[in-house]
Amino acid sequence: MKRLLSLAVFLVIVPHFQAFAGSSLPVTRSIGAPVGFAAACAKYKWLCGRTVAQELNDQAGIALLQKINRAVNGRIVSAEDRSSSGNGDVWSLPVAGRGDCEDYALQKMKDLIEAGFPSNRLALSVVIGPHDQNHVVLIARTAGGDYVLDNLTSAVKPWRTTGYTFLATQDFQSRTGWRVTLAGPRAGEFS
After folding, report:
1. pLDDT more than 90, % of the chain
2. Which of 14, 157, 166, 190 suits 145 as a labelling partner, its CA being 20 to 30 A distant?
3. TM segments (predicted)?
4. Residue 87: its pLDDT value, please?
5. pTM of the prediction?
6. Is 13 inside a domain boundary?
7. What are phi and psi of 24, to 5 degrees?
8. How many domains does the chain have?
9. Is 99 within the bounds of a domain?
10. pLDDT at residue 111, rounded to an integer
11. 3-state SS, residue 135
12. How far apart are CA 64 and CA 59, in angstroms?
């Protein structure tokens, strides 16, 4: 009887977890890019260009995502743009080992592309983060779904498990474009 109960629980939970982890962020219409993105796109060709890379299987891809997320989070000190660059909201690679959320995300994207992760599987995303503030994370698309690399945690998580409300995401294919996302716990407030 115990075995049957265990099997029943397994058959109910595993498909739900796979569906939960294996989903892509929904996107709808085009939207203007966030302030600072166009300048970063002009400065960093890898941000809006496409690089040819060999597709990674999910196991190797997730391992690489975890490695890069931990490495970048460990070597950059969190700092607002004003204190690290002297300007307002600047989207750039970290300056002198310091940066804010979009700087972390840019560094992770650059490092992943250099490590062979396909650029058309990476996109920046603006979310409502802790304390109801806009926050930028990196989305990595795998066959198993969309995963979030975040400077606030060393864990790489499926987008649905972050607790974030996703507002807009860089277009995976047309890399200079952005799309409305509206997904997550507070998405209904913005539709």
Report:
1. 74
2. 190
3. none
4. 54
5. 0.85
6. no
7. -95, 150
8. 1
9. yes
10. 98
11. strand
12. 9
